[in-house]
Every structure is written in structure tokens, then in C-alpha cells.
Design a protein that fits this description.
Layout lengths: L8 E3 L1 H8 L4 E4 L3 H6 L6 E2 L15 E4 L4 H12 L4 E4 L2 H4 L9
Parallel strand pairs: 1-5, 2-3, 2-4, 4-5
Length: 103
């Protein structure tokens, strides 16, 4: 179990790539327009202003944004709800893997 007094756990984009190979859940908290312009396959777009509506606490969730700032805020919100949330440092700016775009 994690404590709300511990700092938010963060991982690199390389560590995220490894986690995604294990079918980990990834929330992209950027705006829908940012998400459509390029996102990680199987990520779920949930803009920062809607993060408090997130309900699934069945496993840890990784959170990404453009630079890592919004995702860290989102991780704090989710952790207050008892969800194990892991911030992705550097966000999409650091992601070197494949991206998909919405048509």
C-alpha cells in the first residue's frame, strides 16, 4: 500500500515503454486536440480537468502529458482517491516510441 505522504512515483519514458509491454494502463491528460495530434497506442485520453472522474483502481495507472507537469498534478488527484498513479517524467516531449494520430 502507498501513503499519501510519499512523493508521487515517477518513471522515465523508457520505463513506461517496458510497462506498456505488460499491458499497463496509460492515461493521457492532454487536451483532445493535443491527443489527436499524436499519442501512444492504447492510451486513454482523459484531460486533466476530468481526472477526478476516473474510477478504475484495479491496477496502477501511468499518466502522461506533454512535459510532465499536468501528469504530476493528475497523479496527485488520483492518489487522493486511493488510486496508484505513476507520473511519466518529461511526457510526450521525451517519448521516442511510436505515436498514432487520430484521423
Amino acid at each position: 500500500m502507498f501513503s499519501i505522504f510519499n512523493p508521487i512515483k515517477s518513471v522515465s519514458t523508457e520505463e513506461l515503454a517496458e510497462a506498456l509491454q505488460r499491458n499497463s494502463k496509460l492515461l493521457d491528460v492532454r487536451t483532445p486536440g493535443e491527443y489527436r495530434s499524436g499519442h501512444i497506442r492504447k492510451s486513454i485520453n482523459l484531460p486533466l480537468n476530468k481526472v477526478s472522474d476516473y474510477k478504475d483502481d484495479s491496477k496502477p495507472v501511468y499518466i502522461i502529458c506533454q512535459s510532465g507537469m499536468r501528469s504530476k498534478k493528475a497523479a496527485k488527484v488520483l492518489r487522493k482517491k486511493g488510486i496508484e498513479a505513476i507520473n511519466v517524467r518529461g511526457g510526450m516531449n521525451q517519448w521516442r516510441g511510436k505515436q498514432v494520430t487520430a484521423q
